[in-house]
Amino acid sequence: MRNPLIPDILALLREHSDGISEYDLLKALKNKHTMLNQLADDPNLQLFRQHFLIMNALYQLQTSLWQEEQVSLIITGMRINLLYNPPAPDSSNATTLAQSADSKLAAYYSDWDEYVSTEKEDVERLLDSFYNGIVNTDERKDALKTLALDSGLIDDKDAIKRQYRKLAHDAHPDHGGDPELFISLRQAYECLMH
Question: Could you tell me if 73 and 88 lie in one domain?
Answer without folding.
Answer: yes
